[in-house]
Design goal:
Blueprint: H1 5-11, H2 16-25, H3 27-52, H4 58-70, H5 88-91
Length: 93
């Protein structure tokens, strides 16, 4: 859901000018707002792709499945390339 700055200010009970000032004067706040917007866009895209998995056309379903497979998994644990440094058995390879 996308809210205007005025609607957002009302929800958090601040003056809209305060919200605009925070966006301008506090880089961390502006970055957080942008991150939330990006996450919302990603969720919307995922929802569309999930819906397309139910399309009667198998080509559409296949394309949607490929896109979902290609998308990064937000729950995945990042791989640590330095793990092998602690494993003596990996030194021989």
């Amino acid at each position: 859901m996308h809210l205007t700055q005025v609607d957002t200010a009302r929800r958090v009970v601040v003056n809209p000018r305060t919200l605009r000032r925070w966006l301008t004067d506090i880089p961390e706040f502006a970055a957080l707002v942008e991150a939330e917007k990006d996450a919302a866009r990603d969720m919307q895209a995922d929802d569309v792709l999930q819906d397309l998995l139910l399309d009667p056309d198998s080509r559409v379903r296949l394309a949607a499945a490929r896109e979902l497979r290609r998308a990064p998994n937000p729950n995945a644990k990042p791989e640590d390339e330095d793990d092998d440094l602690l494993n003596p058995e990996a030194w021989a390879s």
